[in-house]
């Protein structure tokens, strides 16, 4: 059991950004984190304050709402195969071409058709931990400090909640495998929850060290703890009730 996971749904709600207004919330939140807080993207000129790219046209989006404040405080996207051209690359491929080639050799030329990639994971600064994590777009820390409130102990589970949300969307669309380019310490943290990403390539430099990982859909639920299985079903219900 990972302490505090059962408290997560009391404080946070995972929703799919299915409307133009909610997708704009995603792009604004990404701008806040990637441009204003981390400086990884250029800041806007004038009133334009959104961050998006060409992969967004074939992505679905998850938002994380903080219940107490009713604010959206985190997001990610799940980039799907291009329906018109399944040979189109995923975001991780230019940074880790050897990993992409390994997937082609193992799964065949159309490996992307049944795949997806989790990317653009972002959580606003006040919900990330201190120290080095201020330089990371999502928190990976342990939340068991005895002086933290119950709600604050739930904050480190934000990453797990977002990734479980992405997995729920992928499972609902018969995606066979999901890729992610992430910090190794985040992958280790997710493994503590039973989210078993497998390294598929060498580390690369991209705003710090990142490693390409793969999660097979057939193995996803097998690795989850009972608490995470329960959270998965709660998140599935949240997503089923997302605005349309």
Molecular structure report:
The chain is α+β, with helices and mostly antiparallel strands. Residues 140-150 have low confidence and may be disordered. The longest helix has 18 residues, at 20-37. The chain has helices at 8-11, 20-37, 97-107, 150-154, 158-172, 184-192, 217-223, 226-240, and strands spanning 12-16, 59-66, 71-80, 115-123, 177-182, 198-199, 204-205, 209-216. α5 (158-172) packs across α8 (226-240). The chain has one domain: 3-Layer(aba) Sandwich (Aminopeptidase).
Structural features:
244 residues; alpha+beta; Aminopeptidase; eight-stranded mixed beta sheet; 8 helices; 8 strands; 34% helix; 20% strand
Give the helices and strands as they follow along the chain. HEHEEHEHHEHEEEHH
Number of helices: 8
The whole-angstrom Rg is: 17 Å
Largest sheet: 8 strands, mixed
Chart the SSEs and their pairings:
Elements lengths: L7 H4 E5 L3 H18 L21 E8 L4 E10 L16 H11 L7 E9 L26 H5 L3 H15 L4 E6 L1 H9 L5 E2 L4 E2 L3 E8 H7 L2 H15 L4
Parallel strand pairs: 4-5
Antiparallel strand pairs: 1-2, 2-3, 3-4, 5-8, 6-8, 7-8
Give a brief outline of the structure:
The protein is α+β, with helices and mostly antiparallel strands. The chain contains eight helices and eight strands.
């Amino acid at each position: 059991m990972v302490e505090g996971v059962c408290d997560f749904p009391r404080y946070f709600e995972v929703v799919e950004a299915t409307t133009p207004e909610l997708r704009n919330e995603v792009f604004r939140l990404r701008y806040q984190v990637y441009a204003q807080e981390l400086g990884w993207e250029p800041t806007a000129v004038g009133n334009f304050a959104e961050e998006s790219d060409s992969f967004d046209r074939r992505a679905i989006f998850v938002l994380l709402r903080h219940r107490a404040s009713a604010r959206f405080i985190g997001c990610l996207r799940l980039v799907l195969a291009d329906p018109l051209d399944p040979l189109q690359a995923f975001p991780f491929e230019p940074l880790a071409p050897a990993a992409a080639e390994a997937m082609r050799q193992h799964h065949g030329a159309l490996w992307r058709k049944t795949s997806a990639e989790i990317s653009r994971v972002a959580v606003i600064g006040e919900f990330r931990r201190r120290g080095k994590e201020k330089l990371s777009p999502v928190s990976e820390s342990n939340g068991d400090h005895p002086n933290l409130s119950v709600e604050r102990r739930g904050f480190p589970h934000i990453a797990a909640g977002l990734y479980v949300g992405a997995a729920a969307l992928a499972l609902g669309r018969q995606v066979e495998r999901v890729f992610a380019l992430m910090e190794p310490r985040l992958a280790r943290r997710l493994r503590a929850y039973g989210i078993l990403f497998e390294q598929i390539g060498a580390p690369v430099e991209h705003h710090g060290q990142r490693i390409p990982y793969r999660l097979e859909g057939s193995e996803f639920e097998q690795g989850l703890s009972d608490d995470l299985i329960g959270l998965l079903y709660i998140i599935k219900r949240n997503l089923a009730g997302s605005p349309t």
